[in-house]
Specification:
By secondary structure, this protein is α+β, with helices and mostly antiparallel strands. It is 37% helix and 27% strand.
Length: 754
């Protein structure tokens, strides 16, 4: 029969609309995926960019001198609008850099008397603001000064006003009760105490504690107490004190002396070590941010990092890593950032290298000084986004140059993300994810290995629980179950997929986890009782007389198993306390933790596997059941007609033909488990550990993103690494889907001829 012309045109129009709609929809999906991929790369890209150093302002210094090193110390304010210098004559000069080429002198203040000059200015590295400077004049007297910057606003215009402050007063500090000249000193202070370790002209090492009645200020009064340290060396090159006022490092020649400062009666020697070979010499030392690590430069151009680690002999300082800063020159100075683990090395020729310790990365290397100039001082800006350098030419002209430093993500390298890193305070290298802490000197630890491992662990235990149940249920429902019962069972299981995972996570965390802990023996008994009860019920049904079997409708036969399984589960729970008292001393959790030495957390991988398994089962069941049920009937009929049993037909024909669909179902379930968020978030402790222990938790990529993204600073390393974690999750699912499609096509090609 020929369709009317109008109907034929209508069908063609509908077909055309459907074809174009499907095409546009498919292309839109692919385009959206590409956009997501590109946006993730756009956010991630900055963390792998190299550091850059560019000059932005040059301020000539009008005074000229006949001696070589006149500027003893430099610095810059937080906004990089004012740079300052301290020269040998004791002048504290502030210059504006607003117009990039300006040489406007904003303030000049004399720090010492006219008949004095400075022989040394020591930057206090343990100061969190890095402002305090120890001044030692030619008479061996000590003063502490700091640069201060206050902002004022007139309308919308902001003005920064520099000033000089004396944290411990303008008077000379009494660091030695015998009033000997001070050769060198180190200090650290908090609101109530200031501790100095000073080396006198008569070769004594003195600990001086200044205690204020209230908080320290320029006008505050304080009491001084003295402790002479047992010390036999004749020279001291450097003295450093940790920010917590607990440890002092004294460098004398090739040796480092470590003293404990928490005892009010004496200053015991904690440790003495030699960080260089007999043929090498120490040329520079510095404290890394936080004061836990000591950086030591030598005359071979190498910097080594040392910090305390636990050993069989107790806590000792150990060389952790080295950095090759120069192959031809010595390390003359080491400058550290205030809040990050970055540091700068400087050679006599002006070669500068920028490193980050834990990532073991050289971020930048180059020369900052002109061909005919020598760098006399360097300082890092408080935000680590700039460097100020003082230069002295052969003609005696001096200048201060401000450089912009773009180095936003020094802690991120492929090594730090995917390999073991030895962090301060850890006994050995480890994979660690710890992005935040309550202190400013905290070092972010961004290893993606623990959370990637947690993702695999959670998915694995979920699949171990879900696969047998889902696949065997799909086989029975599609092949053995009567059509009447199948029409009720299949929609019921598929409805489980609509259950929000947050509900499953809530139940798992607040109900299932305590229940599993309380009846832990019952859980293992169920693994025996439920299969055994199923087998015995099937065997009893098999032995049942036929006249009794026919009285029960065939589609109701499987329902007999439900009360038996409930009884088996109840029996396991009833026996749980008896088993626990008989074999585990009344507490199986304590037995696992104390006797077996296995850590046990209430919210663990076992709970996650059960809860996430229930979320994955409907996905695998539905797709696998459809694949098995869709096997052409002529294949099964032909197999049975040739004399094969139903079980042989299932294993040799049905499962092989349906294998592409079954494999797709498994991979879809695995993808669902890998990307699951709420169940893992609520049903586990979210601890980023690497342990296959089923009684411990984990942290997954998806849960980590959900937990930490709201708290991360936009544009920070933490923020971008979370996007990197999302990218890794994207790649995981992409690989799984690609492998699944490849295997599915191979299986389809292999068994399509059946």
């Amino acid at each position: 029969m020929t369709l009317p012309l109008a109907s034929n045109r209508s069908r063609q129009l509908k077909n055309s609309i459907a074809r174009w709609g499907i095409t546009v929809g498919g292309i839109s999906v692919l385009f959206t995926l590409v956009l997501i991929f590109m946006y993730l790369l756009y956010v991630i890209k900055p963390i792998f960019e190299s550091a850059t150093v560019e000059p932005v302002a040059i301020t000539p210094v009008s005074n000229t001198y006949k001696t070589a090193k006149q500027i003893l110390s430099t610095g810059v304010d937080e906004l990089k609008e004012i740079i300052y210098q301290i020269d040998q004559a004791g002048n504290f000069n502030f210059y504006s850099t607003k117009n990039k080429t300006a040489n406007k002198l904003l303030l000049s203040q004399q720090l010492i008397g006219k008949n004095k000059n400075l022989i040394k200015v020591i930057d206090v590295q343990s100061d969190s603001a890095n402002k305090n400077k120890i001044l030692i004049d030619n008479q061996g007297q000590v003063t502490v000064v700091a640069a201060n910057f206050n902002s004022t606003f007139v309308g919308d215009e902001r003005t920064v006003n520099p000033s000089v402050v004396y944290p411990l007063g303008e008077s000379v500090l009494p660091l030695d009760d015998q009033e000997q000249s001070i050769v060198t000193a180190g200090m650290a202070m908090d609101d109530e105490r200031a501790i100095f370790i000073s080396f006198t002209q008569d070769h004594r090492l003195i600990k001086t504690t200044l205690t204020a009645e209230d908080d320290f200020s320029e006008d505050s009064e304080f009491e001084a107490s003295y402790q002479e340290i047992e010390f036999t060396q004749k020279d001291v090159e450097n003295i450093l004190i940790s920010p917590d006022l607990m440890i002092a490092f004294v460098q004398s020649g090739k040796d480092i002396f470590v003293y404990e400062l928490d005892d009010e009666e004496n200053v015991p020697l904690k440790e003495r070590f030699t960080p260089v070979n007999t043929k090498d010499n120490i040329t520079a030392v510095a404290l890394l941010s936080g004061g836990s690590s000591l950086l030591i430069g030598n005359d071979k151009g190498v910097v080594s990092q040392w910090f305390e680690v636990n050993t069989k002999q107790g806590r000792v300082f150990k060389e952790i890593r080295t950095f090759n800063a120069s192959s031809t020159e010595i390390i003359s100075q080491i400058y550290t950032e205030q809040f990050r683990k970055s540091f700068i090395t400087l050679t006599p020729a002006g070669e500068m290298s920028l490193f980050y310790t834990t990532s073991e990365a050289m971020l930048w290397k180059g020369s900052l000084n002109s061909a005919d100039a020598q760098i006399t001082s360097l300082a890092i800006a408080p935000r680590a986004d700039g460097i100020v350098v003082s230069e002295l030419t052969k003609e005696g002209k001096q200048s201060l140059t401000l450089y912009d430093v773009h180095n936003e993500h020094p802690e991120v390298t492929w090594h730090a993300l995917w390999q073991e890193v030895w962090y301060e305070g850890y006994p050995e290298p480890a994979y660690v994810w710890q992005s935040t802490s309550g202190t400013d000197d905290f070092e972010g630890k961004f290893s993606l290995v623990p959370i990637a491992f947690g993702t695999v662990k959670a998915a694995l235990y979920a699949m171990i629980f879900a696969l047998p149940i889902a696949l065997f249920s799909a086989v029975y429902t599609a092949y053995f179950m009567t059509p009447a019962l199948r029409k009720k069972v299949k929609p019921t299981i598929e409805m489980m997929e609509a259950l929000p995972t947050v509900i499953l996570g809530f139940l798992a965390g607040l109900w299932l986890a305590p229940l599993v802990e309380k009846y832990l023996p019952a859980l293992f008994l169920m693994m025996i009782f439920l299969p055994l009860a199923t087998f015995l019920t099937a065997f009893a049904w098999y032995k049942l007389p036929k006249n009794l079997k026919v009285k029960l409708p065939e589609h109701l036969a499987p329902i007999i198993l439900i009360p038996i399984l409930i009884f088996a589960g109840y029996l396991a729970i009833w026996l749980s306390p008896l088993i626990e008292n008989a074999f585990f001393g009344g507490d199986m959790r304590s037995f696992i933790s104390n006797d077996l030495g296995i850590n046990f957390d209430q919210r663990n991988a076992l709970v996650v596997g059960i809860a996430m398994g229930f979320a994955v089962i409907p996905t695998i069941f539905s797709m696998a059941e459809d694949a098995i049920f869709s096997v052409p009937s002529h294949l099964t009929s032909g197999s049975l007609a040739l004399g094969a049993t139903p079980w042989q037909t299932l294993t040799k024909v049905v499962l092989l033909t349906a294998s592409p669909g079954i494999f797709s179902a498994i991979m879809m379930g695995l993808g669902r488990a890998v990307g699951e968020t709420m169940i893992v978030l609520m049903a586990t402790g979210n601890t980023p550990i690497m342990d296959w222990n089923i009684f411990e938790g984990m942290r997954t990529l998806a849960a980590n993103i959900a937990v930490e993204m709201p708290e991360s600073e936009v544009g920070s390393s933490h923020y971008r690494i979370l996007f990197l974690a999302a990218f890794v999750l994207f790649i995981f699912t992409f690989i799984f889907n690609t492998v699944a499609e490849f295997v599915r096509q191979r299986l389809r090609d292999k068994y399509s001829s059946m």
